[in-house]
Amino acid sequence: MAEASIILIFLLLLLGIQIKEQSKIRLFAKTSKIKRRLSLFLMLIILLTFWPQILADQIKLMAFAIMIGSIGFLKEGLGEKQLIKFGLLNGMYQQFTTIQIEATSEKQTIVTFYKFKHNQLSLFFEEEFSVIANYFIKLGLSSKITSEKIADTKKNK
Asked: What is the 8-class DSSP label of residue 35?
C-alpha cells in the first residue's frame, strides 16, 4: 500500500508541475480531438481490462490510467524561456541545437526542436510562419532557426 501511495503522490506532483508550466505558454500548439478521444479510450480500456481486486493495485492502475488520460488534455506550446510539453521537465531553448520551422499551409506551421542526432520534438501550430519565426527572433534565438523562409522574415522585421 505504501508503494501505491508513493506512486500516486509522484504522479500528482508531476501533473501539478505540468499544469503550473501551462500557465507560462505564450503560443499554444494545436490540440487534436483524436488524441483526446484516444487517450480517454485507452484509459477506460486499461481500467476495464486490468482492474485488480487488491486496493493497492487498484491505486497503481488508477495512477497509470490518469497519466495516460492526461496526455490528451494537457496543453503544449512555447513559453518565454522554454518549450512546454508533457513529460519534458527541462525544455530550455538553449539546450536545442536547431529549431526548424516549416509552413505546411498558410496558417499552419510545424516547429521541430533538435537536441541530439536522433532526438527531436515537434509541435503543430495554427499560426502563420511569420508569427512563429518572429517569436523566436524576439527571444534572440535567430541563430538556432533553420528554414527557407526565415531570411524573408528577418528582412520584413
From this structure: H
Residue entry with cell 499554444: 28
By three-state DSSP, how is residue 68 classified?
Answer: helix
d(CA 142, CA 138): 8
Report how far residue 124's alpha carbon sits from residue 101's, in angstroms, rounded to the nearest whole number. Answer: 10
Backbone angles phi, psi at 99, to 5 degrees: -120, 115
Q: Is the dihedral of CA 10, 74, 105, 138 positive or negative?
A: negative
Phi and psi torsions of 40, nearest 5°? -65, -45
Q: Taking the model in full, what pTM does it have?
A: 0.79
In whole angstroms, what is the distance from residue 19 CA to residue 128 CA?
27
Can you tell me whether residue 140 is helix, strand or coil? coil
Q: Give the mean pLDDT per block of 10 residues along the chain (157 residues).
A: 89 88 92 93 95 93 91 92 86 92 88 88 92 93 80 49
Which H or E element spans position 114?
Answer: strand 108-116
Q: What are phi and psi of 100, to 5 degrees?
A: -100, 130
**For residue 123, how many C-alpha atoms fall within 13 Å in the half-sphere facing its CB?**
22
**Helices 2-22 and 55-71 meet at what angle, rounded to 10?**
20
